[in-house]
Amino acid sequence: MGTIRTPGRGAGEVARRTGTSRSIHRLAAEELTEAFRFYRREAGLRMAQRFLDEFEHIARLVERQPELGTPAGADRRSYPLHDFPYSLIYTTDERGLRVLVVRHQHRDPTHGEGRR
After folding, report:
1. Residue partners of 90: CB distance under 8 A and separation at least 6
2. What is the pTM of this model?
3. What is d(CA 55, CA 81) in angstroms, rounded to the nearest whole number?
């Protein structure tokens, strides 16, 4: 059973997921929380929850089919959220999916490059 920290149900709460293991880099979790808070502040809780739901949807999708993402460097892939200007940068191995960066698409494309 994998775990991932999700700000949608309160920052720091751990949501448990079945299937392969999933983890999120500490800085990616901070980026996710920052984006969630931005949408909550600027557009309301409903929009913030939509953002988090989309993140979860894409994370589950690439967890099941990691090859869907576009190659983005050494053993990394990128997959965009559909309704928000963010992409997940991730890697997979025998332990499962590892979300390395939750990157705004207008941010420096090298942001988070050194994360493992």
Report:
1. 62, 66, 69, 76, 77, 78, 79, 97, 98, 99, 100
2. 0.80
3. 7
